[in-house]
TrEMBL record, chain A:
<keyword id="KW-0067">ATP-binding</keyword>
<keyword id="KW-0472">Membrane</keyword>
<dbReference type="InterPro" id="IPR005286">
    <property type="entry name" value="Cell_div_FtsE"/>
</dbReference>
<dbReference type="GO" id="GO:0016887">
    <property type="term" value="F:ATP hydrolysis activity"/>
</dbReference>
<keyword id="KW-0132">Cell division</keyword>
<dbReference type="InterPro" id="IPR027417">
    <property type="entry name" value="P-loop_NTPase"/>
</dbReference>
<keyword id="KW-0131">Cell cycle</keyword>
<dbReference type="InterPro" id="IPR017871">
    <property type="entry name" value="ABC_transporter-like_CS"/>
</dbReference>
<dbReference type="GO" id="GO:0005524">
    <property type="term" value="F:ATP binding"/>
</dbReference>
UniProtKB/TrEMBL annotation, chain B:
<keyword id="KW-1133">Transmembrane helix</keyword>
<comment type="function">
    <text>Part of the ABC transporter FtsEX involved in asymmetric cellular division facilitating the initiation of sporulation.</text>
</comment>
<keyword id="KW-1003">Cell membrane</keyword>
<dbReference type="InterPro" id="IPR040690">
    <property type="entry name" value="FtsX_ECD"/>
</dbReference>
<dbReference type="GO" id="GO:0051301">
    <property type="term" value="P:cell division"/>
</dbReference>
<keyword id="KW-0131">Cell cycle</keyword>
<dbReference type="InterPro" id="IPR003838">
    <property type="entry name" value="ABC3_permease_C"/>
</dbReference>
<dbReference type="InterPro" id="IPR058204">
    <property type="entry name" value="FtsX_firmicutes-type"/>
</dbReference>
<feature type="transmembrane region" description="Helical">
    <location>
        <begin position="171"/>
        <end position="197"/>
    </location>
</feature>
């Protein structure tokens, strides 16, 4: 369980991931991420970034080594605990993954309803996170009535509505123009300032270079660089 | 389960039944037909069993005499029969009496006897009542060896044939039922798969935000159960109708035919059928949803 004394919310020790077809996605990874950190995961496509993200979400388990997230050892954990691990994580994807037949409000509330939160709490929390992402007025809109940036803000609201300890974002600005991307990054900064750990996989050089946060670079399944204040480091 | 949550589940089920109305109807239809046949077989087997056991409890042996024996011989046979252990009563039925009884049993259909041209094909006989059904078999074997006795017939013969028939019906029924149950489960699981497939994105999001598998599974499971229940209830109604009609018809013709009385037999059958429907529905949806839960 997540004890307040545990500062490392994510810890990987000697982690390797080899898929059934023999492809080595990650090879002997060692990292720790502390509570409240803002971390970029960079690397070219196929470098192992998505496997890294999938491990954090416990979509896959490591072939060797241990991955501890919010106190859960994801390899040995009981299947019944997986939903509870995921409740401590907020996840954001490049393609937003909103439900098209639900309004903004319902999309965000959905994340609370399916973990059986009390209705009164849902109303309060959803309104408050819609304030955080600046979409309170558009709560009745359906996703197709929103711009890409707005849809991603709804997805962020959904990710943080259950107060996760860690927000995991997989290329969240990948489909957005630069200006909109900065709006998204601004929201992430605010969420991070409130104490939430953020792990963001990205290709966006400008964002990484400008933000001056910790950067973990993965190349061919290895961590080739881990700088506490770093830049993107690749030429595009 | 919290009230709010069950409300959510019920809503989900109603929406998806409406959305897949044709598939839902098809599922209900196949459940109904399959369970109706299942019920029919149960009813037939149960009735055959009952007939067999009601015959089994009859402790009478009919001893048919050869045609050409003398009165003296007949008296000897009667005395020998009375001497057998376990024999309680021996009653002589002459061939005249036998044909008279037969006529009255035929009732309206007495005219059938005219085909015999007033000859009497029935033999003279003794009706031997024994004290205990277990000795019927050995007693009749002994009796058959008496001089002047043509044959000793007891219900056991019929009973054995009935048991064989019951067994056969049971095997055929079992095979048909297994086949139908498989088909029904397949159709239900396909119907539910449509719902699951239409909502796979929703399911994936539910998994990501930490919904438990059971929370995700319930609406689909419930949908299968509802389909199975409706099918089961319908076939229970049809079975009730069929059995009451049929028993009325049979009693009209043969008042003492040993059929199982409608109450409480049909209630048990209904319970079995409806429970099977629910089980089949639940199984069908469990199969179809399993794959989509692996995120």
């Amino acid at each position: 369980m997540n004890s307040p004394h545990e500062i490392n919310v994510i810890k990987m020790k000697d982690v390797s991931k080899v898929y059934d077809n023999g492809a080595v996605a990650l090879d002997n990874i060692n990292i720790s991420i502390k509570r409240g950190e803002f971390v970029f995961i960079v690397g070219t496509s196929g470098a192992g970034k998505s496997s890294f993200i999938k491990l954090l979400l416990r979509e896959i388990t490591p072939t060797a080594g241990t991955v501890t997230i919010n106190g859960y050892n994801i390899k040995n954990m009981d299947n019944h605990d997986i939903p509870y691990l995921r409740r401590s994580l907020g996840v954001i994807f490049q393609d937003y993954r909103l439900l098209p037949n639900k309004t903004v409000y319902e999309n965000v509330a959905f994340a609370m309803r399916v973990i059986e939160s009390p209705r009164r709490l849902i109303l309060r929390s959803v309104n408050s996170v819609l304030d955080v992402v600046g979409l309170r007025e558009k709560y009745k809109c359906f996703p197709n009535q929103l711009s890409g940036g707005e849809q991603q803000r709804v997805a962020i609201a959904r990710a943080i509505v259950n107060n996760p300890a860690i927000v995991i974002a997989d290329e969240p600005t990948g489909n957005l123009d630069p200006e909109t991307s900065w709006e998204i990054m601004d929201i992430f900064q605010r969420i991070n300032a409130a104490g939430t750990t953020i792990v963001m996989a990205t290709h966006d050089k400008t964002i990484v270079d400008t933000m001056q946060k910790r950067v973990i670079a993965i190349e061919n399944g290895h961590i080739v660089r881990d700088e506490s204040i770093g830049g993107y480091g690749y030429e595009i | 389960m919290k009230f709010r949550t069950s409300e959510y589940f019920i809503k989900e089920v109603a929406i998806s039944l409406k959305r897949n109305n044709w598939m839902s109807l098809a599922s209900i239809g196949t459940v109904t037909i399959s369970l109706f046949i299942l019920g029919l077989f149960i009813i037939i087997v149960a009735n055959l069993n009952r007939m067999a056991s009601s015959l089994e409890s009859q402790v009478q042996i009919s001893v048919y005499l050869q045609d050409n024996i003398t009165k003296q011989q007949r008296t000897t046979i009667e005395e020998d029969l009375k001497k057998l252990s376990g024999v309680e009563a021996v009653k002589y039925v002459s061939k005249d009496e036998a044909i008279k009884r037969f006529k009255s049993r035929l009732g309206d259909q007495e005219y059938l006897l005219t085909a015999l041209d007033n000859t009497n094909p029935l033999p003279d006989a003794f009706e031997v009542t024994v004290s205990n059904p277990n000795i019927v078999k050995t007693a009749s074997k002994t009796i058959e060896k008496f001089k002047g006795v043509d044959s000793a017939v007891y219900a056991q013969d019929v009973v054995e044939h009935l048991f064989e028939l019951t067994k056969l019906v049971r095997y055929i029924g079992l095979a048909i039922i297994i086949f139908l149950a498989g088909a029904t489960i397949f159709i239900i699981s396909n119907t539910i798969r449509l719902t699951v497939f239409a909502r796979r994105k929703e399911i994936a999001i539910m998994k990501y935000v930490g919904a438990t598998d059971w929370f995700i599974r319930w609406p689909f499971l419930l949908e299968g159960i509802v389909l199975g229940f409706i099918g089961g209830a319908l076939s229970a109604i049809f079975l009730r109708f069929a059995y009451t009609t049929l028993t009325a018809k049979i009693y009209d013709m043969m008042a003492f035919f040993p059929l199982i009385p409608i109450h409480p037999f049909l209630t048990y059958i209904s319970i079995i059928i409806i429970c099977s429907g629910i089980f089949i529905g639940a199984l069908g949806s469990t199969i179809s949803i399993k794959r989509f839960l692996e995120v």
